[in-house]
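Ticket #4471: structure output looks truncated?

Reporter: J.K.
Steps to reproduce: submitted the chain below (893 residues) through the standard prediction queue, then opened the result file.
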Amino acid sequence: MSVRLKRAAAAAALFALLAAGPGAAPAQPGAQAPVTRATLANGLRVVIVRDPLAPVVSVYDNYLVGADETPEGFPGMAHAQEHMAFRGCSGVSADQISAIFAQLGGDGDADTQQTLTQYFATVPASDLDVELGVDAACMRDIDDADAQWKQERGAIEQEVAMDNSNPTYKALTRLTSDLYAGTPYSHDALGTRPSFDKTTGPLLKKFYQTWYAPNNAILVIAGDVDPDKVLATVKRLYGTIPPRTIPARPEVVLGPVKSEAFTLDSDLPFTLSFTGYRMPGSSDPDFAAAHVLADVLGSQRANVYGLTVQGKALQSGAQLGQTFPKSSLLFVYGALPADADAKAFDATLAAVVADYAKNGVPAELVDAAKRNEIAQNEFNRNSIEDLASAWSEALAAEGRQSPDDDVAAIAKVSVDDVNRVAKQYLDATLGVTANLVPKPSGQAISAKGFGGGETLTAQPRKPVVLPAFARAKLAQLDVAPSTLAPTDTTLPNGLRVIVQPETASDTITVIGEINHQDALQTPSGKDGVGDVLGGLFPYGTASLDRLTFQKALDDISAQESAGTSFSLHVLGVNFDRGVQLLADNELHPAMPPAAFAVVKQQTLQAVAGQEKAPSHLTQRAIAKAILPSGDPGLREPTTQTISSIVPDDVAAYHDAVYRPDMTTIVVIGNVTPAVAQATIAKYFGDWKAPAGKPDVDLPAVPANPPAAAVVPDASRVQDETSLVETVAVTRQNPDYYAVQLGNNVLGGGFYATRLYHDLRQVAGLVYSVGNTLSAGKTRSTYSVNFGSDPPNVSKARRLIARDLRAMQTTLVTPAELEQAKAILLRQLPLGESSEDDVAQALANRSVAGLPLDEAHRSATIYAKLTAAQVRAAFAKYVRPAGFVQVVEGPNPS
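Returned output as attached by the reporter:
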């Protein structure tokens, strides 16, 4: 369980939007989900939302306390308290909490916001009482032992280092602080090293006893459950927890904004410009109008995105970011070439925004934005976790009775409302602008290798004895039956169509994957032609220009994307039209000469920036170290190859790579197989494949020699270390399952698994550590990644080497083996709790040449594996002394 911070999430979302671009959301609300509400005698508010999508349930425990309530001089105390909830609660130790959540499937997390602290988990519905047992124990009391805090402090300080190594996060933090100077909203929920150094267990305990109480919490439970039974369980577990007197909250008085512009050095491959404006908060009657205004500004038919079309930005748009009761934050942004004049773009973007504020926004974009916002309420029901999150946001963050309150408010928004809000808030003198300008730090340099001589003696670990309320339930380790029964057909042109009916909402999702390999299918000297094609899809189709095509999507409130991975999210009533537009875009993309010139130039500028970016140099250093010279996997777009591309190259690439006999389309939602298959055939059935099916499997590669490099990154205070090696176990190899099972002994269950226990819980060297087997048809890699202070890289590395060698020489314990099996087996139903996840998994299995029910076939294999098989697989395939080590950041030596 890692900590998610709202501001960090907003930074990540902004960064992601620069890559994906703004998209339309869907429209028209459907039938309401069954909801059960209760307030216990101790003040705990309980909301249970039934969603029969899968035998899964999501639990959100929302405490109405966050960064606003932290004591003076101790920013981040709410965040620290959130961490300590996983270090021991009433009658449940830290080891027991970790073991329980690991065996529940490992899908739990926590989140500190400005006014809210959330603990959430998604578990099999049959295990809900176990999850609630842990949650209630932490509402009853949290240990906050000083000794435990001294260990956890190292991990949380590494989280601080991680976020302060992210230039977007740093800029967003400063921008927010400037906009809300003098108010609690200016506080960063993350915290600082100095504040954590002076934090103690007793101080945390005082904070807990002040704010953590049932009468200061809202419990949201969503999923396939019996509401009456769940409510009875909640009353039994939570009903005797005493309430507390909650003190007055800090007053927020917004003063005038002092307009400012600042520039920070960045390690991004592009210059990033964004301006933040204060907007109405969630308690303001104009909050709904602010939401609609943000969607209008972010529309691909609006003039902000028009800067991308004109070639004035690599990507541009708008989004509503953080939301507080008395204010929310609107961003307008642009990603620019690395050497662009950011100040000139700032002025251009400000002029576009000012024009809307002065002259108003188009009425048709307001109508489209309202439909899209309203329909998102329906799409939230396609994911059990998203549904629980939406309800928690509405109740705990915004003070609503349900998400429907937002829908009703948006439905009432008029064009006049939007224009009034725009005129009042989109004032250039009220904005704060941040520019992130790339400052290359240099090429990768060789360094000392991983080494083979480091040894440490592992401390023996005693089996964790679970508390009585969890012991019997988690001892039951069965292969859960799948709720999926997809139909699988192949059209005459070779297109594979998979359909999975679902009735949780009146929506339909289409996911498509084209099996391809750019490294083998791109003509020599034309690397990057696929990127140019990808940039042309938003320009519409051969029959519909860009604005007409986007309006057609807006008219049916559909989300659509085209490419080698393509998708459609649409209401059931608009399925036929949605597929028609998707097929037209995918099969007949517009390639107008003017658009080609713009997209080619943007691609050229993006690649030029990427060639100097530390993140790209890190991946290149890894690739060059693990792949033999001349391997096709070393191909990459360069400014030279992009410069050579002409329109005929793009058309030829589309004709060669986009072919039905290499494509799988998955349809999931409220549709019958017959209707789905007929609709796909109607619009994709005439798609023809050229002769000669291409080979898209890369050649096998030998084991790589050990190597090491450091990629300088002056913007980072923390080193990000990647340990990567080629391994001989492919996805079709029967030993794949033994390695994957052992991988879940090492990781996948937070403190309950070896790497997290050793590197974070005990040593406090890292905030997160990940271990991954990426297995393909012909080549595979094994990797371990972690972030740490530069002096601790070698310490963490030695612990990793020790744990890997132990996997090869000593049998994992029976308890570890059963826990790893539990993680994998209980993840099976969790993988069916989102329609998007189900569709993508089916498409991925098709492309990989695996059976559609492979997840459940693998469960049977995992259940039978032995400790001896795990040890043998790790001894055969994993080479602890064979890693390529690449460190991005300050030199760890």
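Triage note (M.O.): checked the attachment and the full token line is present. Residues 1-31, 450-460 have pLDDT under 50 and may be disordered.
Status: closed, working as intended.
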